[in-house]
Amino acid sequence: MGGKTAVKKRGAYFDRKETRSRERRREEQAGELAAMMRLAIKKSPVIRRRFEALGVTPTKRNACELLKKLPVISREKLVQMELDDPPYAGLGNPDAAIERIFTSPGPVYEPHLSESDPIWARAYRAAGFGPGDVVLNAFSYHLVAAGLTFHSGLRRVGATVVPSGASSAAVQVQLIRDLKVTGYTGTPSFLRTVIARAEEEGYDVRKDFGLRKACFAAEPLPPALREEFERSYGIDTYQMYGATEVGDVAYECREKEGWHLCEEVIVEIVDPETGLEVGPGELGEVVVTRPNDIFFLMRFGTGDLSRLIPGRCRCGRTAPRLAGIAGRVGEAVKVRGMFVAPSQLRKLAEGFPGWKFQAVVTREGNRDLLTVRVEAQESGRGKDVLASFEKRFAEICTVRIDRIEEVPTGTLAGGSRAIVDERNWP
Ligand SMILES: [Zn+2]
Cα of 315 to ligand 1 centre, how many Å? Predict the structure, then answer.
């Protein structure tokens, strides 16, 4: 995906892969997956044993089905596997010319080839970063993958990088001012800190600085903070999503309606309890496989909950989109087979300012019952308002409410949990 292959369509840059048909994507990715599986069988005794147990040789035709038969590997599980069989749990290719070895908390060791890094270029290109940009990279360069991999992505789109890493906010302000920085990449909360520091020093960020775009990762971007960056400071913001174990997973385009899956990964949305794929549009755990020839980590369970947005994006990319991150596995409660996460309820609350409510799951007979307790206002709530609340609930949570219970004001104190599981399992 170098600059030469990128084509310009409606003001955005794509490469061939981003606009290929979904059938073609599936077919090409199946081929890449089968190639990794066959190489892994040759190079990794761990993988060889796993496929011997399945009794099937991976081909382009069966690779995706075979993948579903492998266990999901969570970060915790990977840490244990690496402890038992250091450094790569037997999943590394011993003959690969590894350029870098990163580590992340656990510890988890991750071998990287430099060629596997520039994938973040897709995210930066979609966010409008390119030649002429001077970008502050405030991700750490120390041991962890973030700094260097984002650096490679920025270089790939032709931007100049200022590797500011973990420098203090004061230093970042000085760099933005002196080097005429136009873009920022890092966490949203740190950019907020840097802006606060600049204001303390008496700068008018919008007038005095050339900072116009930001591409965030590693943290959620709350809508209010996004609005503040965009409205108050004139900084166009984008989100990227990934994990150090598998790299870039998804990124936001200019439409800002979900995150396109990266062309280099195969993503499944699964029920974290069973590892089986959930239905279209349903919430589940994001499980990622990146076909590559150095680290044969297949079905990495990110622990993040999301769902896929149906339909095509107006930007022209054909890759499916993730609907942001709804929370972590463990926070969500399963209601009639669907996961409901606290973040979905927070999203719902945005449309009903001042409302206090709590979802409660009970069981009657063999059926889950979803009751939503809503604090009554003095005036009471009209039927229409409650009906629109129910409708919106079903849209966001993909589960219908069975009963709305109005409770006295003050019942749901500040610390009340958004969703409570009151089922007693025998
Ligand atoms: Zn798009």
Answer: 4
CA–centroid distance, residue 256 to ligand 1 (Å): 7
SS3 call for 132: coil
Paired residues of 266 in beta bridges:
289
Assess contact for 302 and 296: CB atoms under 8 A. no
pLDDT, one tens digit per residue, over 200-236 is 999 999 999 999 999 999 888 989 999 999 999 999 9
Tokens of 32: 């890449």
Q: Please give the model's pTM, rounded to 2 decimal places.
A: 0.85
Written as one letter, the residue type at 204 is D
DSSP code, position 232: I
State the Cα–Cα distance between residues 29 and 177, nearest whole angstrom: 44
How far is it, in rounded angstroms, from Cα 216 to Cα 16?
25
Domains, the chain, in order of start with CATH, read 115-326 (3.40.50.12780), 333-421 (3.30.300.30)
Residue among 278, 313, 240 nearest 22 (CA): 313
Q: DSSP assignment of 274-304, as one string?
A: T-PBPPTT--EEEEEE---SSB---SEEEEE
Planar angle of CA 314, 324, 238, nearest 5 degrees: 65
CA of 224 to the centre of ligand 1 (A): 22
Q: Using the mean position of ligand 1's atoms as its centre, give its distance from the Cα of residue 235 in Å.
A: 19
pLDDT tens per residue, range 273-323: 899 999 999 999 999 999 999 999 999 999 999 999 989 999 999 999 999
Residue linked to tokens 């609005």? 227
**Centroid of ligand 1 to alpha carbon of 252 (angstroms):** 7
C-alpha Rg value of the chain to the nearest Å: 23
Pairing of strands 284-289, 236-243: unpaired
Q: Which residues, other chains included, contact 68 with Cβ-Cβ below 8 Å and sequence gap of 6+?
A: 268, 276, 277
- Please tell me the distance from the alpha carbon of residue 70 to that of residue 65, in angstroms, as a whole number: 9
Q: What is the 318 CA–ligand 1 centroid distance (Å)?
A: 8
Q: How far is CA 245 from CA 102, 198, 250, 295, in A?
A: 10, 35, 14, 9
SS3 270: strand
Is 141:164 a contact under the CB 8 Å cutoff?
no
d(CA 390, CA 376): 15
